[in-house]
Task: structure prediction
Amino acid sequence: ANIPSITILNDASLWSEDFSTLVDGTTRDNGISAWEVDPAGSNSSAVNYYLATFSGRFRFRSLEAEAVWRSQWINLCGNGASISIDLRESGSQEDDDYIRAYYQVDDGPEVLIGEIVDDAINNNTYYSFSTNGIVSGNQVRIIVRAKNGINGDFEVHEFDNIQFTTNECFKPVTPDVASSTDTSALLSWSPDFDAESYTVQYR
Result:
């Protein structure tokens, strides 16, 4: 009988976050798509200050200085990884106000994915940013930095719909074979990289 070798291909999102299942005011997620918030130099006592999830997105409001959102470290496999994210602003921003999304591989520098500085062309409108071909490494994380003030009204930055994907996670594994014939086999194995798509090759 032929004992099959198994190749696992993950051709779906490896990590994503759309905040849709989180209650308003969440500042940390320890689940599958884990992340945390660093208030950094922001002023939590400022009027209308807000740094948490809000209505299925993440909101920075009336910070008076920079605050930071960071995803967990995500395993990398292959060089074809990509990240996409939606950013937006509302209110009357100053020229030194911003929201910037980055990725970081291992201990390397933060690499800019996209940014909105000062007021966007269209207020309160999401702009989509993405990057492709992330360099090889062991792990990657996504970082969002925002700074805004109070300026007499709500100054808000928000982001949503983070997707980290790759088509290069081919990972051979050795299955446990409970039974095998020339035409069928009963197999079990543990997926790597949260694989969702599998190719079974009989050789």
Summary: Residues 6-12 have pLDDT under 50 and may be disordered.
